[in-house]
Amino acid sequence: MQTYASAGLRSPHMAHRVRLARPMDPACTGKTLASLLSMALVVLCLASSQAGAAGVGTHPNLNGTWAVYPSRTKGPPPDPKLLAPPPGPLKLKAKYAQPYEAMRAAQRESDRKGEPLANASTECIPNGMPTMMFPIYPLEILQTPGQVTIIAEAMSQVRRIYLDVPQAKIDEVPPGYFGHSVGHWEGNTLVVDTIGVKEEVLGYRDTPHSDQMHIRERFHLVAPDVLHDEITVEDPVTLEQPWTYTFAYKHTPGYQMLEYVCDNNREYVDDKGVTRMRLQNH
Amino acid sequence: MSFERAIGLIAGAVPTLVLVALTASGPALAHHSFAMFDHVNRVTLAGTVTRFQWTNPHVFIELDVPDAKGGARHYSIECASPNVLMRGGWKFTDVRKGDRVTLLVNPLKDGTPGGMLEQATFADGRTLGDSNPPGGVFQR
After folding, report:
1. DSSP code of A89?
2. Residues of A in contact with B76 (CB under 8 A)
């Protein structure tokens, strides 16, 4: 597998920067022109060795693997200027706020007792949107013509964002885990709209939503190797006002995504909804 | 689990009228809560590996630990996931059937013979930590 390191690139963004850093000099001689052309060829070859480089065009290059920033386990202290801003207030409508808070309280209490309530991931069910965008394992972004594909290492989740096409009507989208996503570039920001996430797929922090939900995302680089995904959830049924929060990612050059098949799930849910661990005796 | 089902499970729980400020900023999602493990009363298990499963969602070490009567008690020890362990320096060949290993473990609170790994000393003497959240801290 081709990696950025083996292509001689420190990061996928380097080829983009090199390309931009070579304006044509009108006074150049034939020799330097030939030299520039050969350099451009080298740069093009390097760029084409990256997955999806052909689809990047003049847009920021988001290709590569990314991990939630700051890392939860290791690494130098994060740069405060690059951190995701704190989330905005979650304002659920009264009908949803009380059962939601009761559920959160029950989760905390069950954790305190050492009998955690099960959730989707306990049963190896994919997080779906938007929670798959805040994973403990890396994401991979692939830019190809007309499409941006995001793969989460955890549970091998895949979402496809179709560029420059109209959003589908809600009754055309079978409700699922990742929904139907369309996007376009506004300057250096990739703007995405997602509908069609089924109601059983809880939102960030286990929030409820309806079939009217839109997940609006704005992806933009805040540094050459730090990406933000500003998410605004709109839901006229469950939310008093849109809820905005941002996830930050750091580029992980050279990282090769691992497979993730949940074939040895020892956790199970007992008849009280409590998570238990299945033991073996040999 | 659906939201409705979740609510059904906790019907009758203390109603809370005010949405408290949610401060959790990560880790995002672990495969499950680690609350079933005792992170305070840790135990050290020295024994012989009967199986080593390099699998998702968790790696498992199956271990026979000798008891005072000349027999053995069997333990199932959950580790982090393969990708987390790899980033922590582990290799899928670090543990093999028949190896004698020593494991520092957060035992299951219900007393059954299982637990979550905190640190392993391999047959060759190397020691590596597990990479689950430090002290079992887990935020949903």
Report:
1. P
2. 266, 277-280
